[in-house]
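Query structure, 283 tokens:
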């Protein structure tokens, strides 16, 4: 009994340290974002508390020696790229996982080839895509070569998520629909798809977040128009000001809002199966 309590205490301390290490950079970043501007810099102690750097992000401050961050185009590119990547990777991952529900020759080899997209170092993938595009005379752009790099990276995650969902799926429901006369396409659309929507949401969340933050694969494949991570990295080579921390806080809040949206969508789409189960129990 005492041993169990000691283990629980150790795990509790470990979890507390993990959470602290996870959120400590965000806490520091948040505190520094309230530095007095434009004189204050990215160091402790703070010279005072103000919302100057947040106001500067929205162009509400007079001109100063610190130029405002020019991230509007980069945000648009990253969001557009992440949304398109999310859609394509989720569809490809779902279709591939659906194919893996039946044994076919070479399925093991194909499985590991798909996983290579995760295992190969990202910077090598980006470099390889850049070399191929140069060889073929294709211009590098965020919407072409970077898009390919992002799909290669996020597609395996979507595939793994959907494969796990399909492995838990009750085939007898589909067989019952087919016995009643539905073809495979109609069975998938009317029976299978509604049941795997929570998995689709998880796969889409993975694909969106991974693409939105992707840096190494985009470094060589982006071309002249940079995405948000590359643009932020470029500001480090000049001088770091608290406006970057303020933007980081807003970006983090945006990420939390996506998680909240994901939570509510999961609540909505997992409620229906529960009702069905209750009805089945009643019948």
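Result returned for the query:
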């Amino acid at each position: 009994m005492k041993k169990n309590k000691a283990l629980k205490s150790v795990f509790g301390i470990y979890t507390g340290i993990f959470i602290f290490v996870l959120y400590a950079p965000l806490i520091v970043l948040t505190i520094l974002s309230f530095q007095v501007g434009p004189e204050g810099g990215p160091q402790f102690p703070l010279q005072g508390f103000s919302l100057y750097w947040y106001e500067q992000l929205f162009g509400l401050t007079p001109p100063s020696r610190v130029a405002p961050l020019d991230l509007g185009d980069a945000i648009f590119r990253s969001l557009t790229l992440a949304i398109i990547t999310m859609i394509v990777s989720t569809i490809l991952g779902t279709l591939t996982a659906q194919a893996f529900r039946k044994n076919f020759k070479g399925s093991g080899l194909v499985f590991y080839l798909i996983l290579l997209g995760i295992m190969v170092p990202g910077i090598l993938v980006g470099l390889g895509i850049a070399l191929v595009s140069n060889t073929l005379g294709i211009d590098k752009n965020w919407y072409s070569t970077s898009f390919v790099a992002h799909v290669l990276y996020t597609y395996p995650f979507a595939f793994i998520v959907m494969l796990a969902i399909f492995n838990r799926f009750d085939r007898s429901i589909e067989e019952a629909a087919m016995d009643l006369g539905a073809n495979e396409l109609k069975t998938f659309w009317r029976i299978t798809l509604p049941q795997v929507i929570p998995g689709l949401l998880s796969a889409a969340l993975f694909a969106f977040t991974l693409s939105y933050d992707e840096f190494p694969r985009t470094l060589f494949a982006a071309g002249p128009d940079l995405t948000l991570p590359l643009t932020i990295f470029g500001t480090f080579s000049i001088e770091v000001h608290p406006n970057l921390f303020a933007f980081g806080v807003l970006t983090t809040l945006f990420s939390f809002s996506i998680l909240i949206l994901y939570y509510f969508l999961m609540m909505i789409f997992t409620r229906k199966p529960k009702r069905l189960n209750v009805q089945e129990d009643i019948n």
